[in-house]
Design goal:
The chain has 202 residues and is of the alpha/beta class. It has a domain at 7-32 and 107-201: Rossmann fold (3-Layer(aba) Sandwich). Helices cover 53% and strands 12% of the residues. The protein contains 9 helices and 5 strands; from the N terminus they run βαβααααββαααβα. It has a 5-stranded parallel sheet with strand order 2-3-1-4-5, with helices on both faces. The longest helix has 24 residues, at 82-105. It is globular, with a radius of gyration of 18 Å. Bound molecules: adenosine-5'-triphosphate. The site of adenosine-5'-triphosphate has 14 residues, from α1 and α6.
Length: 202
């Protein structure tokens, strides 16, 4: 008997670990990928209930007159305060979880991926069948991010790393680990995980 829904697979990893790069390889294999961080930004700008919740908690000035999100206000008033970050995450993460579920139900592939920097940290692994962690040494990750993002400093990258669960913990919690280091090819590792997930979906 075929399953009614695709398996739900998380794809996580610390900043600069190579999640998006690995996601692109899965996409080439025909696996649909939900990019949670991009989608969260879209939902914050477009999902009426979420917008209402953000305005109710952080004031109407969270949005500009033209209805777009007031990024500088939120950066100053919300993202600088850990308690407020918790509050906004408590609004955004359930909205993303719901949106992901609806999206996944409309896919016809054997499994789908949810690419997100925070999966174990938010507990969203509970709603997933499997989680893949992309693992890479901190030094390599910092160098890659600094090369990719001109606007970021080493201190900013380290601050983000401090807010994420350490790689070793994620490797222990994950069902699959893809090592993104210079001496290991990514494509054969992705193919191996893909084959196992296809087998599990049958
Ligand atoms: P973020 O958490 O910031 O979104 P990420 O985990 O999605 O990062 P990527 O954007 O995939 O990471 O990779 C970070 C940078 O490192 C990118 O510029 C990417 O092209 C590069 N990169 C990733 N893997 C490799 C690799 N194996 N060899 C060389 N460069 C790589």
């Amino acid at each position: 008997m075929s399953r009614r829904h695709p398996l739900l697979v998380g794809l996580t990893g610390g900043i600069g670990s190579g999640k998006s790069t690995v996601a692109k390889i899965f996409q080439i294999l025909g696996i649909p990928c939900y990019f949670a961080d991009d989608r969260a930004k879209w939902l914050m700008a477009n999902e009426p209930k979420l917008i209402e919740g953000i305005k109710a908690n952080f004031g109407p000035e969270s949005y500009l007159e033209d209805g777009t999100i007031n990024r500088s206000y939120l950066a100053e008033k919300v993202f600088s305060d850990p308690e407020k970050v918790k509050k906004i995450n408590a609004l955004v993460h359930p909205a993303v979880g719901k949106d992901f579920k609806t999206w996944a139900e409309n896919q016809t592939s054997p499994y789908v991926l949810k690419e997100a920097a925070l999966i174990f940290e938010t507990g969203s692994n509970k709603d997933l069948d499997y989680v893949i962690n992309v693992s890479s040494p901190i030094k390599v990750r910092i160098a890659r991010v600094l090369m990719r993002d001109n606007h970021r400093t080493v201190e900013q990258v380290n601050n983000i790393i401090d807010q994420q669960l350490p790689d070793e913990n994620k490797n222990e919690l994950a069902d699959f680990v893809i090592k993104n280091v210079d001496n290991k090819l990514l494509i054969p590792q992705v193919l191996k995980v893909h084959e196992v997930l296809i087998a599990k979906s049958n």
